[in-house]
Write a structure and sequence with these properties.
- The chain is built from 7 helices and 2 strands, in the order αβαααβααα.
- The protein is mainly alpha-helical.
- A two-stranded parallel sheet has the order 1-2.
- The protein is globular, with a radius of gyration of 28 Å.
């Protein structure tokens, strides 16, 4: 009877060797995470379809993810910078088309000296 209880259904999960990206992970990959089963994995996917994760802490907005659970998951999850970055303001055409003014020296004060005399 012990052999039956130690079968695959009760096998301990082996967490991923590399952190997985919350925005691109499959349901199967999410289920590898400690404390994440099919229901929570589905909630994570539903959440990211509405709002992509910008940082790992955004996972707290998913029902069933507490601060304690997040801390246990933290070593195994990440959010890629390309998924979380918005386009830089410096690449907008209106910003790059204007030349940056260069500082110039103040004008000569010869006329001021003449008027003071």
């Amino acid at each position: 009877m012990l052999i039956f209880l130690t079968g695959p259904a009760f096998a301990k999960k082996i967490p991923p060797s590399q952190p997985i990206d919350l925005n691109t992970a499959t349901m199967k990959q999410l289920e590898q995470l400690p404390g994440i089963g099919p229901t929570r994995a589905e909630k994570i996917i539903e959440f990211r379809m509405k709002t992509p994760f910008r940082r790992v802490e955004d996972l707290l907005a998913v029902p069933g993810i507490s601060k304690t659970r997040l801390e246990k998951l933290r070593p195994y999850i990440k959010v890629s910078s390309s998924a979380s970055k918005k386009p830089s303001k410096s690449v907008t055409p209106s910003k790059t088309s204007k030349p940056t003014p260069t500082p110039t020296s103040p004008p000569s004060t010869d006329s001021e000296e003449e008027s003071n005399q």
